[in-house]
User: Fold these one by one.
Assistant:
Number 1:
Amino acid sequence: MRTLIFSAAISTLFFVACNSNSNKQETSSTTAKNTEMKTDETAKGPVQGILAGYLDMKNALAKDDDKGAADAGKELVKAFDNFDKTTLTAEQAKMFDDIQTDAREHAEHIGANAGNIAHQREHFETLSKDLYDFVKVAGAGEKLYYTNCPMYNNNKGANWLSETKEIHNPYLGKSMQTCGSVKEELN
Ligand SMILES: [Cu+2]
C-alpha cells in the first residue's frame, strides 16, 4: 500500500511537471527516424500487446527518438485498453488491477511528450517498475532481461525490461548506449 501511495504521489508530481511544460513548443528530435523499430510481435502470452508497445518505447528511447517513444506510448495506451483480462488467473488479474491505472497514465504522458525526452524518461522509469511487477506474476511469454543503469538520475539508477541481453540504454540513449547490466532473467 505504501508503494501505491508513493507512486500516486509521483504521478501527481509528473502531472504537475508535465503541465508546466505543456506550453513549450515541441521540438522534434533530430536523430534518425528509425522505421524498423517495431518489436517482433511473435511474443506469446497475455501480456504480448503490452510488452510489444513497451519494448518499442524502450528501443525508441535508446535511440533518443522522442517521437518514436511517443508513438509507442499511444500504442501502449491502446494495448491497455484492449487488454483481455479474462485470460488471467485471479492473482494475475489482481496485479493487473494494481498497476493498470498508473502504467496507462505513464504511457499516456510519454505519448503526449514528444519534444521532451527527459520527461518521457521519468515516466518510463516508473512504467518499467509497474510492468516488471506484472510480468513477474503474469509471465512474459518470452525471454526478457531486467536491466539496471546505475548512472541515471544523478547515480540513483533505474531499471528497464529488455528483450536483448546486450545493453541498449533507454535512459542515457546514444551518449551512454551500453551503460548497464542485467540483474535478472525473466520468462
Ligand atoms: Cu508527464
Number 2:
Amino acid sequence: MIREADLEALGRLVGPDNLLTGQPQLEPYTTDGTKLVFAPDAVIFPRTTRQTADILRLATDREIPVIPRGAGTGMSGGSLAVNGGLVMSLEHMNRILEIDRENLIAKVEPGVITAHLQEAVEKVGLFYPPDPASIHISTIGGNVAECAGGLRAVKYGVTRDYVLGLTVVLPTGEIIRTGVETMKGVAGYDLTHLVVGSEGTLAVVTSITLRLLPKPETQRTMLAFFANVTQAANTVSSIIHRGIIPTILEFVDRTCLECIRKEMAIFIPPDAGAMLLMEVDGNAFMVEQDSSKIKDACEEGKAISFKKASTRAEAEQLWQARREVSPSLYKLKPHKTSEDIVVPRSRLPELIAVLHELSSRYDLPLPAFGHAGDGNIHVNIMHDRENRSEREKVVPLVKELFEKILKMGGTITGEHGIGITKAPYLEMEIPKPGLNLMSRIKEAFDPKGILNPGKIFLP
Ligand SMILES: Cc1cc2nc3c(=O)[nH]c(=O)nc-3n(C[C@H](O)[C@H](O)[C@H](O)COP(=O)(O)OP(=O)(O)OC[C@H]3O[C@@H](n4cnc5c(N)ncnc54)[C@H](O)[C@@H]3O)c2cc1C
C-alpha cells in the first residue's frame, strides 16, 4: 500500500491530472493480455524523461514498487501490479519525434502505437518491419521491453534487430543514453540490447531510435492446404532450400482448421490436416519469380489445394483464415493457456507428434498454429477452469511440454516473455549460474528492487 504522504509527493511531481488513485479509474490498469487481475494502488502518467526520473528517484527513496506499462497487451503478465504499487503508464509519451529519410532512422517516444509508426514511415516510402499481431493496440515501448516478434520475423527479424539506441531512466533516477544513431557502433557494452527484452525490470524506456528500411515495392499472398503436418513441414524446408525467405510463413494445424472451417469465405478441403499461409515481398519481378517457385514447392509437397491472391481483396480473404484461428479456439473449451514455444524449424513434425501424444494422454485439446518459418508455434491448452480435474492438468502439462521442447533444442518463449506466467519454469531453460548473473545485473540497475518486482525471477 502506498502511503498517503507518498501519493501527495507523487502528485506534486506530475500534477493531480496525471495521478489516478480512485477505484473506477484504476480498473483499466488491473489486467493485460493474460486476463489475470491485480489492482495497483495508483497509476501515474509521466509526460517527459525528466518527470520519469523524478518519479523513479522518489520511488527508490521511499521503496515504492513501480510497474512500467505500455498498452497492457502483454501475454505473460509483465505490466501487472502483482503486489500492488505504482503503475507507470507511458501512454501519454506518444510522439513520433523524427523520421529521418536520409539516414533511415526514426526517433519515437515509448507510448507510440506500433501501427501508427508503421503508417507514418510508409507514407514517406519507408518500412518498419516488426509486426506483432497486436500492432493496432501495442506500444513501441512495450515491444522494446518484450522484444516483440511478429509474422514477418522469419524474413525481417524481431524488434531487437531495429533498435539502435535508447534513452532509459534507471530506478535511481539516472538518465542514460545507450547505443547509437548510426548504422554501426561498438563503443562499450551493448546496454541497448540488454534493456531490449528486459520486461521493464531494469529501466524505463523513454525514447527509442529505430532503424528503418525502404518499403518493398509489392507483395503476394498464397495459401496451401496439406493432408498432414509432415507434408506442410517438408514444404517449408523445400521453400527455404529454393533460396526463398518468405516475408510470412504461417502454419495452422488440423484442430484449428476444424474450428474455423464453417466461418471461412474460402473452401477448406475436408481432408486438410495442415495449412500454410505464405507471403513474399520485393520488386515485382522478384515477387513473381518467388511466388511461382513457392507454387512449385507446394505442388511437389503434395498440397491438396493452392491459391495465389492477385488482388489485395483476395489476399485479405486468405489472411482471414489465419486471423480467425485464435478467437475460434474457444469453441473447444472456455479457457486457453497459450504458450509460445520455439523449436528448430526442421523439428516441426516432431513437435506436432509430441502435441498429439500429450493431448491424448492428458485428454485436453492442444491446437497449434503460428510462425512455421521461424519455428515459433503457439500451443494452446484448451480447458475448463471450472472443472477441477481439467484445471489441475494444465501445470503438469506445461511442464512436460517445456521439458520436451528443451530436449529438442528449443526455447520456452519466442516472443511473449517470462513475466509472471513463465517465471516458475525459467530455471528449466537457464541453469542457476546464468540466473545468478542476471540477478546481479538486476541489482546493479535497481539496487532497492523497486522496478517491476516479481517478474522474470521467482520471489
Ligand atoms: C491479440 C494479441 C496478439 C499478440 N501478438 C503478438 C505477436 O504476434 N508477437 C509478439 O511478440 N507479441 C504479441 N502479443 C503480445 C504483446 O502485444 C506484446 O508483448 C507487446 O510488445 C506488448 O506491448 P504493450 O505496449 O501492450 O506492453 P505492456 O503489456 O503494457 O507491457 C509489457 C512489458 O513491457 C514493460 N514496459 C512497457 N512499456 C515500457 C517502457 N516504456 N519501459 C520499460 N518497460 C516497459 C512492462 O513493464 C511489461 O513488462 C500479442 C498480444 C495480444 C493481446
